[in-house]
Design a protein that fits this description.
The protein has 167 residues and is mainly α. The protein contains 6 helices and 2 strands; from the N terminus they run αββααααα.
Amino acid sequence: MISILLHELGHAWGCLVQGVPVNRVVLYGGGGFCEHRRSTSAYEDELIVAMGPIVNLTLWAVCSLLEPFSNSPEIGWVLMVTAELNLWLALFNMLPLMPLDGGRLLFALLTRIMSANSAARVSGFVGLVGVLLWIPMMIFAYISFGFVFLFFPPILRHWQMLRYARY
């Protein structure tokens, strides 16, 4: 939960450095969100969305660098587990699926090269492909690592983005 909190605070920091007021940071279950007070442009969203995974990658790097210098096996284990957890969180969050950071960042980046309507359609298509691959990925993760994902990408949201280009 601490890594998730720091991830969400990264989003809040991305808001604040651009002058976007933050309403609240909320944690729930295995996730959270940063709610800002006003709408943001796609350009503002790029930094806001990227800051969460950047925080996780920073935590991964710091813990990985400190682990060899730990003076006890227990501290070394905590640093190693914290590093691995934060790397996993960053990679998972960058999957191009809504409402994950990767899906939001894909949409924001696509609006640089195409209309918002076209960006929504492309993001919706990519998301639907990801949803179709999700079940085999869940089975693979369970068989390989004994891990069960408690997240399932929203099929309807991706379908609406593709079909109706609403975002």
